[in-house]
Amino acid sequence: MFRPADIITALFSFFLLVLTAFFYNKIPSAPYLILIYASLIFFQVAVVRLSRLNSFLTLTRDIIFPVISVLIIFESFEWLVHYINPKDIDPLLVNLDYLLFNGYHPTVMLEAIQTPILTDLLQIFYSAYYFLPISLGLTLKLNGMNKEFDKTLFLLLLCFYLSYIGYMLFPALGPRYTMNHLQSSELKGLFAADIIQETLNRLEGIKRDAFPSG
To answer: Do 137 and 5 form a contact (C-beta atoms < 8 A)?
Structure first.
């Protein structure tokens, strides 16, 4: 039986497949992307059908495949977003920040309290975000809260996929790329921030995923 969480991943993958086919001539990696999205649909159906066979396949359906789907779709945006919507909205976002902060750039304002140890702490706190959905799902599963787990999984996937639609509608590189010329000093940590930033930069690449932030 297909749950809402299974259906939403299959539908979103199908949406991306159709979108890629529609912009086929504009996307250099269109055949590769179509293969990716078609494979996600196929494996989603297969995982649902096979999940009753053993506990590992059930775990795959509940935790492993949703995580993999979210990551694969996110990674695919590096070859998709800029080709279907090439106009980044960073100048608009920068100007809105400038107006909201009464003629100041917030990133420049924060330099007044910038310290390496604070940078480390905030970078660690930010990075904890990546583990929150998985830890929440595992906690619900281990406590036998299956209905709550199914609802939570659906809502988490819905939020991710809505933010992904936002990346396509409002592509933005983000201030670390578009405002570094305004910074008087580079944002440096003491022992953790630099390593975490370099790792995330390698893993994420350039996805134009700054707005709305997932």
So the answer is: no
- Scanning 23-145, the segments in alpha helix (DSSP H) are 30-50, 55-59, 65-76, 81-84, 90-100, 106-109, 116-127, 132-142
Nearest to 136 by CA among 163, 157, 162: 157
> At a CB cut-off of 8 Å and minimum separation 6, what does 210 contact?
90, 93, 172, 173, 174, 175
Which CA distances in Å does 6 have to 43, 68, 153, 191?
11, 13, 9, 41
Both structure tokens of 130 = 């990546």
DSSP string, 23-51: TGGG-TTHHHHHHHHHHHHHHHHHHHHHT
The model's pLDDT over 87-109, given as tens digits with 9 standing for 90+, comes to 999 999 999 999 999 998 888 88
DSSP code for 53: S
Q: Is the pTM of this model over 0.70?
A: yes
CB atoms within 10 A of CB 169: 12
